[in-house]
Fold this sequence. Notes:
9 helices
Amino acid sequence: MRFVVVTGMSGGGKATAIKILEDEGYYCVDNLPVRLIDKFMELVFMPGSEIDKVVLGLDCRADQPFAYVEEVLEKLREKGYKYEILFMDASDETLIKRYKETRRAHPMAPEGRVEDGIQKEREVLKGIKANSDYVFDTSRLLVRELREELIKIFQENKHYNSLMVLVTSFGFKNGIPQDADLVFDVRFLPNPFYVDSLKRLTGNDEPVQKYVRSFPQTQKFMNMLEEMITFLIPNYVAEGKNQLVIAIGCTGGQHRSVTLANDLYDRLKDKGDYGIKLYHRDVRD
């Protein structure tokens, strides 16, 4: 029996995660009243049950005592019931944007500000998030990418450290990414912008890449950066961090930062049990 409790921030992707797991053959129950959780788990764990993969979706709602959820789950674990907790999250900025797009009221502040509901919900859920087996931040995660990660865990039984690494390029003239954990300034490298043949290209184009990589300080910097990030990642995992945003910046976010973000992504993508994404914030379409 594999029993997965899916919860998290409203707007964080809980419904999407449940649908993905349902498509993978899990028996899914969503929005079960919290006082029925123990009875439900007892039923599905009964000997002879034909169900061997179950998902239980739990919402944080103003009219339900979520603290009771943690209490019930802990008692069930003490009784020997085995389950995993998948927590779906996103940045406050992303959650606010999603609510504005759908024009929905937040369940924790039905007549108030969405921002207030988000903060109240974070406070209520901080305990179960801290004890979750998997935490996904969907702020920049596509549904396709979420599906791939969930299949790795819940179908292929691959080890997962609940860390998503985002390597992003940016231009300092447009501001440092607000969610950046580590920021690296590569404006010490010669700027391709001042080379006429390269000015209108980006770090996704081979001529710019060749130019940026031609300087000895570029390779020395990349080697040192790779060594440091490789050292940091397992330590962040050990501390329970679930998202690491590595931001590499140059003046306009078109040439140097894009090239080096691409190179760092290539160096890290096959190095460990973590998800990794590449994003170029300021590159023109």
